[in-house]
Amino acid sequence: MKKSTMGTVLIISTLSLLSFSFISSQQALSHDGDKFWDFSNLKRPGVLPVNNANYDEECGSCHMAYSPGLLPKKSWMKVMGNLEEHYGDNAELLPQQHIEILNYLTTNAADFSKYRRSRKIMASVDRTIVIDRITLTPYFIKKHDEIPKRFVIDNSKVGSFSQCNLCHSNTANGSFNEDEVSIPGVGYWHD
Ligand code: HEC
Ligand code: HEC
Question: What local confidence, expressed as pLDDT, does residue 27 receive?
Fold first, then answer.
């Protein structure tokens, strides 16, 4: 074999070894028995974009309709179980809407999501405690702990961390990427 041919063979075999170990690590990550050639198994960035008009309308009037992938199933059950006393407001629904929205939120909750941010939220929460706020998940707290109060609570253009879409410009696509953050009255965020 010529030297150059040997080099090529070496490169090709290294590459195939690398891709093999990539595939098997992907496979090892999958706990639900999916096949590695099923591309739906590859993790997607962000969270599931809200894709239910009824939910968007009923739960998106006081704050944005949060992606179901931002909280675990048990948290959604807790929120939905107490809509008449909803953080100081009454957000009760008609029985049929209640059933549909509860079903939408729980079947698409972070527990079952293949979106990367949902996996990270799930990995951060203590499963023995049922929290009723995204802003109380350890993942959320870690990502926002350097933002001063004056940009949020004391910022009349924001008021609360619950108003995600005021700072995150691409939430409609399920994206919370830090490159797309612009805090009202403050501007683009650089840490
Ligand atoms: C009448 C107004 C109103 C409606 C309608 C409403 N909410 Fe809320 N929601 C609030 C308020 C007020 C808060 C607390 C916001 C804050 O602390 O700044 C809140 C907070 C939340 C939070 C916690 C956000 C956080 O801080 O992490 C969740 C989750 C939530 N709402 C889900 C829902 C769902 C699901 C529906 C539809 C069934 C809904 N909301 C409809 C007023 C409303
Ligand atoms: C006051 C503006 C503001 C609000 C409101 C806000 N965020 Fe953020 N968020 C930021 C900033 C700024 C960063 C980047 C922080 C950093 O890089 O230190 C960030 C980062 C994030 C990240 C990590 C992004 C990355 O690329 O790693 C996620 C996820 C996120 N926010 C989700 C949310 C959710 C969900 C809500 C609503 C419940 C929310 N944020 C509300 C300002 C905000």
Answer: 41
Average pLDDT over residues 48-76: 98
Contact 173, 50 (CB under 8 A): no
Q: Quick one: CA dihedral 161, 144, 82, 95, positive or negative?
A: positive
Instruction: Tell me the C-alpha distance between 102 and 5, whole Å.
Output: 62
- For ligand 2, atom 35, name the residue with the nearest CA: 164
In a domain, 47, yes or no: no
Domain span holding position 174: 53-188
> Are the beta carbons of 84 and 16 closer than 8 angstroms?
no
Position 29 confidence tier, pLDDT thresholds 50, 70, 90: very low
61 shares a domain with 22 = no
Reduced to 3 states, what is the DSSP secondary structure of residue 121? helix
Q: How many folded domains does the chain comprise? A: 2
Instruction: State the distance from the centre of ligand 2 to the C-alpha of 176, rounded, in angstroms.
Output: 6
Specify if 46 maps to a domain: no
Same domain, 37 and 118: no
SS3 state of residue 18: helix
